[in-house]
Amino acid sequence: MSDPHSAWKALPVAAVAALYISGVQRFIRENLVVFFGAGTGFAISDSLGWREFGLGATAALLVGLLIAMIYHRRFRYRLDEDSVRVRKGLLEQQELKVRLERIQNIGFSQPLYLKPLGLVRVTLETPGAAQSEVNLPGIALDEATALRDRISAGVAPPGRHPAANASDAEGPADSERGPARGARFEASASDLFRYGMTSNQIWILLALVGAPASNWIESRMSHWIEQLRASGVLDLEVLQGAPLLVAVVVGLVIFAAALLIMTVSGLLAVVRFGGYKLVLEGDRFKSRFGMLDAREQTLMAEKLHSIEIGQTMVGRLLDRWHAVGHQTGGAQSGQELREDRRFLVPGIDARRLPGVLETLRNGSWAIPEWRGVDRRLRSMLWGRTVVAGTLAALAAWWLVPDQAPWLTYFFAVLVVVVLVTVHLVWRRWGYALDDKRMRVRHGMIGQTIVEFDMFRCQQVSIKTSPYQRRHGLASLTITLPHGEQRIPYIERGTAEKIANLVLYRVETSLKHRL
Amino acid sequence: MEPNDESEFTNEVIDPHAIPDHAEVPFNPMASTFRRYVLQSTILQVLPFLVGVAVLWLLPFVQAGSGLIAAGAGLLGLASLIAVYRWLDAGYRGWVLREHDLIARAGVIWRGITALPIARIQHVETTHGPLERVHGLARLKLYTAGGMTADLVLIGLPRSTADELREYLVEQIRKRDSEAAQSDHE
Question: Which of A52, A377, B148, B157 has the greatest number of CB atoms lying within 10 Å of its CB?
Answer without folding.
Answer: B157
